[in-house]
Design brief:
Length: about 170
């Protein structure tokens, strides 16, 4: 999955999570979830996030490889643990965990899959599309539409920007 799709998916996962938990939609939490959706690719020095922190991504990549431990059941269990311990009290921690886990779910939807049972190399996938393909492009449009419908449109309506045009 491409970085932009991960971010859109992370943003939308946070919207879904906030809806389920009855949380208000704070812009900063939405943005944190979007940014956190790029964290698992810290294991790839050329990824969007990995290229920002080469001093971390190079050694992690050398030791674990791309789509290794950061995309595994260890990461999911760590996310569940952190969420259970801190996520219900602190919205921002929850946004980081939801964004992070959305990345793994997103990668699982691609042909490449994720090595849930790392260090076993076999990857688990529910292949809906291939990274960078036409279907991913459609998914990006759908996620953008959803984001506009849930966040951007109500925000514009609330601020009165829309009234001046209609
Ligand atoms: Zn990834």
């Amino acid at each position: 999955m491409m970085a932009s799709t991960h971010v859109l998916f992370g943003l939308n996962c946070w919207l879904g999570y906030a809806q389920l938990r009855g949380l208000p939609l704070h812009p900063e939490a939405i943005l944190i979830a979007g940014a956190a959706s790029l964290l698992p690719d810290i294991d790839h020095p050329k990824s969007t996030f990995g290229s920002m922190v080469p001093f971390l991504s190079r050694p992690i990549s050398a030791i674990f490889g791309h789509r290794g431990i950061t995309h595994s059941l260890f990461a999911i269990l760590a996310g569940i643990f952190i969420m259970h311990r801190y996520g219900y009290q602190t919205e921002y921690v929850a946004a980081i965990v939801v964004g992070y886990l959305s990345h793994l779910a997103g990668d699982m939807l691609t042909n490449s899959g994720v090595p849930l049972l790392w260090p076993v190399k076999s990857k688990i996938a529910i292949p809906v599309f291939s990274t960078g393909g036409f279907v991913e492009w459609l998914v990006r449009i759908a996620l953008t539409g959803l984001l506009c419908w849930i966040v951007v449109w109500p925000w514009l309506a609330k601020t009165g920007v829309l009234k001046s045009y209609f």
